[in-house]
Amino acid sequence: MRPDRIILGELRGVEALTFLRAVNTGHPGSMTSIHADTPQRAIEQLSLLVLQAGSKLVRDDVRHYVRESVDLFVQLERRGG
User: Fold this and answer.
1) Most exposed residue of 32, 57, 59, 76, measured as fewest CB within 10 angstroms of its CB?
2) Is the CB of residue 42 less than 8 Å from the CB of residue 72?
3) Would you list the domain boundaries of the chain?
4) Residue 46, number of CB atoms within 10 A of its CB
């Protein structure tokens, strides 16, 4: 089975690297969520998750990989409770 898109509830660990690899191998339009205060911090958080997964890449290379892999960040803010 080969999905057109991958929708993953939330990136929290080692699955971050697997997800990024998947979106770069023919699964455009895939979606996930990650907790961060700003889109820039989302890049940092996603980079950290990739590094924690045991990637041998250096942090700057991982950041570049994330920036090239992710087309859009949508930031949500809770207001009024």
Assistant:
1) 76
2) no
3) 19-69
4) 26
Of 72, 66, 52, 63, the C-alpha closest to 21 is 66
Least confident of 31-40, 44-53, 71-80: 71-80
Structure tokens at 66: 């994330």
Name residue 31's beta-bridge partners. Answer: 7
Predicted model pTM: 0.85
Which of 7, 6, 10 is closest to 46 using CA atoms? 10
Rounded Cα gap, residues 50 and 13, in angstroms? 8
pLDDT tens digit sequence for 36-45: 999 999 999 9
Strand partners for 7: 31
